[in-house]
Inverse folding.
């Protein structure tokens, strides 16, 4: 059995207080659904039903990126919930290049056909804030993509 470690503690600008929920999922095509359902259940159970749709969309995009752009065998998800906000951390074991939002694409005739590359733009539009963190100093061994949703929105 592969040893599992939790994501490193969040940096100081992220919420430190609140309930924490963790899940480790295989980095497979089914991971987005597994994690969406987990995050939805956590938000419903903790009294944040208005954040469920945005959280499902954001976590689906981040998990899909981990599947499409890494060879990490698993993803680790931590959800920190308090009365004001929810922060979701997704950690994989392949630091590679830290994701940044792609530049906006001008609308064109093929705009509807080209559906890739919009995930982080959606996260950026829906989240109060988001970011990435690499762990391992000079030779990173993992990275976390996180986003925070608030009841008040952006």
């Amino acid at each position: 059995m592969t040893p599992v470690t939790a994501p490193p503690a969040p940096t100081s600008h992220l919420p430190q207080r609140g309930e924490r929920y963790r899940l480790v999922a295989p980095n497979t095509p089914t991971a987005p659904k597994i994690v969406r359902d987990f995050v939805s259940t956590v938000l419903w159970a903790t009294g944040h039903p208005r954040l469920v749709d945005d959280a499902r969309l954001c976590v689906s995009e981040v998990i899909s990126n981990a599947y499409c752009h890494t060879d990490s065998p698993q993803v680790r998800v931590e959800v920190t919930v308090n009365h004001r906000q929810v922060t979701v951390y997704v950690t994989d074991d392949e630091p590679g290049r830290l994701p940044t939002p792609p530049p906006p694409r001008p609308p064109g005739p093929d705009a509807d056909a080209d559906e890739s590359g919009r995930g982080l733009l959606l996260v950026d539009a829906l989240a109060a804030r988001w970011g990435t963190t690499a762990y391992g100093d000079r030779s990173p061994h993992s990275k976390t993509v996180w986003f925070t949703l608030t009841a008040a929105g952006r």
Summary: DSSP finds three helices and five strands in the chain.
